[in-house]
Amino acid sequence: MSRTTVVLGAGVGGLTAAAELREILPDTDRVVLIDRSFRSSLGLSMLWVLRGWRTPHQVTVQPDAKALTGVELITGEVTAIDTTARTVDYGQGESIRYDALVIALGAQLDPSRLPGLPRALDTGIAGEFYSIDAAADLHHRIQEMEAGRVLVLVAAVPFKCPAAPFEAAFLIADQLGDRHTTGAVSVDVFTPDPLPMPVAGAAVGNALVDMMGAKNIGFHGQMPATAVDPDARAVEFADGTRESFDLLAVVPPHAPGAALASTGLGSAGWIPVDPATLATATEGVFAVGDATALMLANGKPLPKAAIFAEEEGRVAAHQAARFLGYDAPDTRFTGHGACYVELGDGLAAKGEGDFLATPAPQVTLHDPSAAYHQEKEQQERDWLNRWTARA
């Protein structure tokens, strides 16, 4: 009897899950991958687009049927997931029934959650680097600055890639060059968290603050933003203070999409999963990557990062196959991961460790080196080369 496994979302986690499912399921079973466009880029590549080291074309992949042989590709916007009827609605009145489901729909940017931010983005006094074209546009705006202040703002938590705003600050300072080192253009980071990457622990956070200080980048923790005033070019904070800027480089608020909320699996929209198997509260439904709320031993959620989404996609594929009754490996998510923080000048620091450790993640931040920058470049090359059809 033929069964249908549906994967929602063609980001890192979804592509990995779909490819793995096709490898381990019998040819008579359907593997269906649904995505709004099938165009994607690694988050690490977007930071290099921001710096001007990559173009959007160079780092955008668009896998087709040849890149995913045997996987049915459906282009459509997932609008609702009914875990009781085991159906997914997409497009204009289209739906599909599944026997097993992997949800990899990621997180959406929702600038409207911070008053004033949509107009700041529309008028160009603010830019973001979580979408590929926006990162390229922000690069050009930074290039045009001769004097003033760049304010890098984390608008809300959680957000994708916990290192990204601090890496952005380093790369913006690096791009500015003499304009920054002479003080003509200053760079400051503001975040609601007390330290950078708090899930990694105080030692990692303080080390990153010291690295920013050495580059004359200001760090301001425990500063939740309440509004942006586009006319005054200022950010308002919960403590009543205002900080002016000439250019705002913002991590917009992230939100689960309506399709995630429609599952009813998580009160906040993010989907709780078993840390080992990525199983949700509904049998036969698994979730991976940025869509999830995978809680760690210290009560904090696992960071939303591609390195975890890729492993999770593989684990969810194996567990979905086992749910269907096939003799697939009983693979478990390990929580081991690493991320890189670019400092410019071809140097990167590397944070790595065990995020599922108890009583808290055990993470080490290794000193910056050219070798870590090269490792990051190889990670990008491996991902791009895996998908032969590129836009």
Automatic annotation (TrEMBL):
The keyword Cell membrane does not apply. It holds the Pfam family Pyr_redox_2. Its EC number is 1.8.5.-. It comes from the Bacteria. It is an enzyme of class 1 (oxidoreductase). This is Sulfide:quinone oxidoreductase. Residues 5-312 form the FAD/NAD(P)-binding domain. Keywords: Oxidoreductase. It comes from Nocardia kruczakiae.
